[in-house]
Write a structure and sequence with these properties.
574 residues, BirA Bifunctional Protein, domain 2, 5-stranded antiparallel sheet, 24 helices
């Protein structure tokens, strides 16, 4: 049972909506009152909505509900209308009017509107105009002309709905845990639509601030990187001169007066407030991992996440997931093409999996954060397909481990977010490992390019013999799979290390059965590529070295941060 609560200023306007015809996608039928603060009330639903009798009944009902509001006068809350909707899950059985009436009484009592049988409670009604939901309207003035205590009303009402789900055998829906980022408002969505954008200003700023956090080792770097990302910053200081908070805006986003539209960091996401950002800066220690390249260091740090999550320390695990989100942000910047598009979507989805009610030990993720910053400083200069595939392999396993970690703790929303990120990571991995077709000057403009992998050399007899020897039951299906050229390429690369194709296939197939795999070809390709690009024991040992007290000097030629990739609508306009 899903609960949604809002507030308004006009009782008669809210009544016109709940007793009106509704919207095109959600029409209202058989509008009638199922419960109220008293048993006898005018029933506007008995009249045709287009008749004067209907309007007169609504006016009488509004006057009855507003009696105490008029008596309170200036002391009444400006938004005195309390509007709550209760909706069942689509698979739930249809509840009777009596059941909905009971649900309404329990919700208004839990939310602090009116306790059962309390004559001092607020005036309210519950209107049903569909099979699966009701609307509850109340005026927030009690008999003593004081406003009720509705603090945290949505959470108290949601907890009561959870109890009703258990008692009545309804589908149990995920409950809010106050860790999700704020959704864009309707005006923000409409502004994005008018401009032809698929993302709102709030979402764009959220992504850029996350990138700045991932690239920064201290507060000054954080604000410097925001400036590089073309984000305007307004700092809030205390009388003592200490920095207390910050707000951000885009240069071209202004209101009707031409002023920037500011968003406080904490309103973008709970973990982007200034205290939460400061908590993720290193404490002065830095891993001495200069013996290996930044791509291998990042892969090694991410590769350690699943094992660290299995240790059972919840606060340290939450810290690892927070740092893993910054690794996602770094990968968005340093990848290119279709791979970057999918990694960006994975990063946006995984951001929800980095926050839960468990307080994160941010120091637990310092090594991973350091590796992510080094990756950002290195930029795209050291990147190749193998390095990208190497990190995407480790991110896939880390996302799987994150989803499992959240499921064990009943964090259903976070587990779903990690799973969604996993889907995009797998798509990014396919873009990275699938050979691209080559084009020639003889290709005529407007002709359709050949399918991916068509330029891959044919498999050698040795590879085909090894495939039929090691996997006879899957051989025909693998060769017929569109992903076969990618597997052939991976096998060819693996054999250059001195191993026979049969040995490589045997090692890959022996990790886990292939009967339940949707595409054994893609699974084998992923396993072989992971084995090829997995950090060596020497690289992992370098990552595990003791810390040094000073941060190594960055190369002078390195670029600390890049601009975010253009969004999909920008690419279309180009």
């Amino acid at each position: 049972m899903i609960v949604k609560i809002g507030k308004g200023t006009r009782t008669v306007g809210a009544l016109h909506y709940v007793f009106g015809p509704g919207k095109k996608h959600s029409p209202h039928t058989d509008q009638h009152i199922v419960a109220s603060w008293e048993g006898f009330l005018p029933e506007p639903g008995r009249f045709d909505p287009d008749t004067p009798e209907h309007d007169a009944a609504l006016t009488r009902l509004a006057r009855l509900m507003d009696v105490r509001v008029d008596q309170a006068g200036a002391d009444a809350p400006r938004e005195h209308v309390w509007h709550c909707s209760l909706r069942n899950h689509p698979t739930d059985p249809i509840l009777t009017d009596e059941q909905w009436a009971q649900a309404a009484r329990r919700v208004v009592a839990a939310a602090g509107i009116a306790a059962e049988g309390d004559p001092n409670g607020c005036r309210w009604i519950a209107v049903r105009h569909a099979d699966d939901h009701i609307h509850i309207l109340a005026t927030r003035i009690q008999a003593d002309l004081r406003a009720p205590d509705t603090f945290r009303d949505v959470f108290r009402a949601s907890a009561e709905c959870a109890r009703m789900e258990q008692e009545w055998g309804l589908v149990r829906v995920d409950r809010p845990d106050r860790t999700a980022a704020r959704r864009p408002t309707a005006p923000e969505r409409h502004k994005a639509q008018r401009r032809g954008h698929t993302t709102t200003i709030r979402e764009t700023l959220r992504e850029r601030v996350r990138t700045a956090v991932a690239a920064s080792a201290d507060e000054s770097e954080f604000f410097s990187h925001l400036d590089q990302l073309e984000v305007k910053v307004k700092k809030r200081t205390l009388p003592s001169g200490d920095l207390a908070g910050y707000s951000v805006a885009l240069p071209d986003d202004t209101n009707a007066r031409g002023e920037p539209v500011w968003f406080a960091g904490g309103t973008l996401a709970p973990d982007l407030s200034l205290p939460k950002v400061r908590a993720r800066f290193p404490t002065g220690t830095h891993r001495d991992t200069l013996a290996t390249g930044p791509w291998h260091r990042a892969a090694s740090a991410i590769d350690a996440v699943p094992g660290l999550l299995r240790r059972g320390d919840d606060e340290a695990g939450a810290g690892q997931l927070s740092a893993l989100g910054e690794a996602f942000s770094a990968m968005v910047v340093v990848t290119t093409g279709p791979t970057r598009f999918e990694v960006r979507r994975a990063s946006i989805a995984f951001a929800r999996a980095t926050r839960s009610r468990i307080r994160a030990d941010q120091r637990a993720g310092d090594a991973l954060r350091s590796a992510a910053r080094d990756l950002l400083w290195a930029g795209r200069g050291e990147q190749d397909g193998g390095a990208t595939a190497m990190i995407l392999c480790t991110l896939v396993l880390a996302a799987l481990a994150a989803a499992h970690w959240h499921r064990l703790r009943n964090h259903h929303q976070q587990a779903a977010a990690a799973h969604q990120a996993l889907i995009h990571l797998q798509a990014a991995y396919r873009h990275t490992t699938t050979p691209r077709p080559t084009t020639t000057r003889a290709t005529r403009p407007g002709t359709t390019p050949r399918a991916r992998g068509q330029e891959t050399p044919p498999a050698t007899p040795e590879v085909m013999e090894a495939l039929r020897q090691v996997l006879p039951e899957h051989a025909d299906r693998i060769v017929a799979d569109p992903a076969w050229p990618a597997l052939n390429t991976a096998l060819t690369q693996a054999t250059r290390t001195g191993k026979a194709p049969a040995t490589v296939l045997l090692e890959a197939a022996g990790q886990r059965e292939l009967d339940t795999a949707a595409s054994p070809t893609e699974v084998l390709t992923w396993r072989i590529c992971r084995q090829l690009h997995r950090p060596t024991p020497r690289a992992r040992a370098a990552t595990a070295r003791s810390t040094c007290t000073t941060t190594p000097t960055r190369p002078a030629a390195a670029t600390p941060i890049h601009r975010l990739p253009p969004t999909e609508e920008h690419r279309r306009r180009r």
